[in-house]
Amino acid sequence: MTTEQTLSAPGRAAEKFWFNPKAASYNADPYPHFKRLREEDPVHRSAMGVWFVGKYDHVRSVLKDRRFSVQDIPGQLRRKNAILATKRVTESQPSNLDYLIANSQHWFAFLEPPDHTRLRSLVSKAFGQKSAESMRPYVRKCAQELLGRVRAHGRMDVMKDFACILPLNVIATMLGVPPADFPRLVAWTERLARIFDPLTSLEELATLDHASQEFMEYLRMLIALRRAQPEDDLLSALIAAQDESGRLSESELVSVCILIFGAGEETMVNLIGNGTLALIRHPDQMEFLRAHPEVMPKAVEEFLRYDAPLQMTSRTALHDAELGGKQIRKGDQLYLALASGNRDPEQFAAPDELDVTREKNHHLSFAAGHHLCVGAPLARVEAQEAFGVMLETLRDMELATDSLGWRDHTVLRGLTALPVTFT
Questions:
Q1: Is residue 87 situated within a structural domain?
Q2: Domain for residue 51, yes or no?
Q3: Which of 268, 272, 289, 353 could bridge to 167 as Cys pair (CB 3.0-4.6 Å)?
Q4: Residue 347 DSSP one-character state
Q5: Count of domains in the chain?
Q6: Nearest 5°: phi and psi at 387?
Q7: Domain interval for residue 88
Q8: DSSP string, 157-216
Q9: What is the rounded CA–CA span in Å between residue 400 and residue 264?
C-alpha cells in the first residue's frame, strides 16, 4: 500500500494511511483495507485527490443528501474522448468513445431529476415486488435446469455453469431477447461493466467503444422487430410507452435496455458467486440454511451485506459541505464504500461474521435515497431461488482449488471462477 512517513516521536517514524484500491492485497480481500479506512481516516482524501468514505452513517447520509449528485460518467467520457482526439492527431489512433458516450448518457444511474425520475418511472413497475414475484417460478425452473446439467458430474464452476447464466436468462427473458442471442449479450455486458471502474485506462475504454456499438445496433434491430410484432415482454411495453406518450426517445430506449442488462446481470452474477463462497467457507451456516429454508430471505440479505457485489458508488459535491469533520468542496468526487459501511461495528454486531439469521440487516448494498436500486425486488427473488435450488440439489459442496481469482475491478467484486465439488 502506498505510504508516507511522518514523525510521531523522536527517532520514530509512523506510517501514514493511504487508502489504495490498486494495492496488491486489495483485490483478494478489501476488508482489512476498509477496516483501516473506518478506524484511521473514515473521510479520507486519497493520494488521487478524491475522497473515500468508509463509515456506515457517513455513507448513508451522502446517499440521501441532494447536495451530492451521481457522478457524471458521460461527461468524464467526453473529456477523455477529447484526449483521445489529441492522441489520434499525434499517434494516428482511430479509436474514440463516441458510442460509449451515446450509450451511457441516458443511463438513469448517471442522471438526476427530472430526467432520472422520468426514465426510472418507465421501468420501475416492471421491477416492482409484484412483477418480481411473478418471475419466481421461472427463476426456480431455470436454476433447476442449470444445476441438473452438472449434477451427475460431481463438480462445476459455479461462475461459468450457474452464476453467469441464470441472471442473464432472467433479464433477457423479461425483455424478450431470443435465447440464441444470450451469449453475445453476456460478452457485451461483461465488457461494458468496465466503464464503472474509475481506474479503467483510456486505452481500455477505447476498446469498449466497439462493444457498445454492437450492443446498440443489436437492440435497434430488436426494437424494430418488436415494434412491427409486439409480444408480451418488457421491451414491447417500453416501445408502447414511447409511442403513446413520446416520453422515451429511440436513443433513450436503447440505453435503458443496456442499463437493465448491465445492472441486472453483473451484480447478480457476483451475488451468487460471493454468497456461494461465503457458505462454503462457513459450512455450519450452509447446513443450518439447508435445514431451515424459511430463513433464506434473511440469508440473502446477509450475503449482500457480508461480501457486497457492488463495493462502491460515487457522488459529486454540488455545494461545499462538511462530512465527518472534513471540508468537502464543490466539485469534489466521493467514493462511498458501501462494503465498508456493511462491516461497520457501530451498525452491525460482529460485522465480520456471516450470520444467515441476522436481524435488522439494513445493509447498503442497494444504496439508498432516490437512487436506491430499482431492481432490488427482482434481485432478491433471483438470489433466494438460486441458493434455495443449489442447497436442495448439491450436497457436501467444497472448493476444488486452493487459489481463487478475483476480477480486476474497483467498484464491482466478483470471482473469475469458483470450481467446486459436490455429491
A1: yes
A2: no
A3: 268
A4: T
A5: 1
A6: -70, -35
A7: 72-310+365-421
A8: EHIIIIITTHHHHHHHHHHT--GGGHHHHHHHHHHHGGGG-TT--HHHHHHHHHHHHHHH
A9: 28
Separation between Cα atoms, residue 65 and residue 367, nearest integer Å: 12
Query: Which candidate, 284, 256, 200, places its Cα nearest to that of 374?
Result: 256
- The 10 Å Cβ neighbour count of residue 246 is 8
* Number of Cα atoms under 13 Å in the Cβ half of residue 302: 24
Whole-angstrom CA distances from 248 to 109, 252, 334, 403 are 16, 6, 31, 47
pTM score of the predicted model: 0.89
Residue with cell 485527490: 49
Q: pLDDT digit string (tens) for 265-291?
A: 888 999 999 999 999 999 999 999 999
Helices (H), 229-353: 234-245, 250-281, 283-291, 296-306, 338-341
Evaluate whether residue 58 is within a structural domain.
no
Q: Write the pLDDT tens digit of every residue in 321-347.
A: 999 999 999 999 999 999 999 999 999
Q: Which residues pair with 9 in a beta bridge?
A: 12
Q: For residue 339, is it within any domain? A: no
Assign residue 111 a region (left: φ > 0; alpha: ψ between -120 and 50; beta: otherwise): beta
Residue 261: CATH number of its domain: 1.10.630.10
